[in-house]
Amino acid sequence: MTKRRNMPFALVVAVVLALGLVASAPALARSDTAGHGTSSLVGAWRMTTLEVGTGGNLAPVPYSGQIIFTKSGNVSVQAMNPDPDAADTAYTVNGYEAFYGQYTVDKKAKTFQVTVQSAAVRTLIGQRLTRVFVVSRDTLVLTPADPAEGWRVTYERL
User: Fold this and answer.
1) What pLDDT, in 10s, does the model give residues 46-101?
2) Which listed site, 69, 78, 79, 154, has its alpha carbon 20 to 30 Å from 51?
3) What's the sign of the alpha-carbon dihedral 57, 62, 68, 74?
4) Which H or E run includes 112?
5) Please, what CATH class does the domain formed by 43-157 belong to?
């Protein structure tokens, strides 16, 4: 008789625990993303403008590209200068920029840092690149942490 009384009690405990796990699953999933501080960056973004220059004198450069941030903390960047004779830069080869890697966000500093895992410019592999970001509705603006690099890129959310 004791076993029969404990059986319904055990079933009730199991159901309560299962319902608790089901109810908390969405919150747990959100907290993982929020822990990366990635909520405003996550998604695909299309480049609208690239500006380069020094001393605050930025001029537009004809570029196209995209950046994609995943919830799991990966980022990939692709950009192209339509000029086939464009000089190589620290980030481009034959007018093309491409890299991907893991990123982390510092919400307080409004920066993210990407550790490059693969890149068209192989000297970038293993480097940690820090970018300042501002998200306003469906617009993302990125600048380098070191203003001496002299660029600003603007994207729109896809």
Assistant:
1) 999 999 998 779 999 999 999 999 999 999 999 999 998 899 999 999 999 999 99
2) 69
3) negative
4) strand 111-119
5) mainly beta
